[in-house]
Amino acid sequence: MSDALVLFSGGQDSTTCLAAALERFERVETIGFDYRQRHRIELDQRATILTKIAAIKPGWKARLGEDHCLDLGVLGEISATAMTRDVAITSGADGLPNTFVPGRNLVFLTFAAAIAYRRGLRHIVGGMCETDFSGYPDCRDATIKAMQVALNLGMEKNFVLDTPLMSLDKANTWRLSEQLGGTALVELIVEATHTCYLGERGQHHEWGYGCGECPACRLRAEGWRKYRSSSPH
Length: 233
Description:
By secondary structure, this protein is an alpha/beta fold. It has helices spanning 12-24, 41-53, 60-63, 73-78, 104-119, 141-155, 170-192, 215-229, and strands at 3-7, 27-34, 64-71, 123-125, 160-162, 204-205, 208-209. The chain is built from 8 helices and 7 strands.
């Protein structure tokens, strides 16, 4: 058992990672980033999730520590993407969708490591996944492993970058949340987390709030369908 810092956006994946960390570590702190994301309503959901997740299982409240939220507006200023601009979501000539924010996860991990260094935290937990994703190169396992080496060399530390969702598809991410916190955690993720790239929270679906059409919504909905089809509930 050790201490951890969780990259916590207010979305499904990071909430599942937070639950996994609360099961595993003695002290868990969280960090979020405001990079002027188009769906920055996700940041508004963080406080609600932190309050409610602490009550799901005995011991989680005592383990949940300080929350940090950093202003990384400069990343939004230099990123002309569908995640930071009001433009249609399309794919480029390189095959990458224009929702890809170059360097985002690398920047996030660097700042998270700086906070972890100051706070004396060894494990840094992120929801990166190379199974159900849009081909983002900074979500690949090889990228995270290389980043761990760079951070440890550059800060003379022994950080561990944990990515519990790396090999899971969205259906298995839903299953993991149930394993970690039962139906209470699944319901919290449905009702409180935000995934929709467009920041839409006016439409409620059985899998949560969102436009239902953007890639993030479609991925979440399809994962939910597969999860429910194999669930005894």
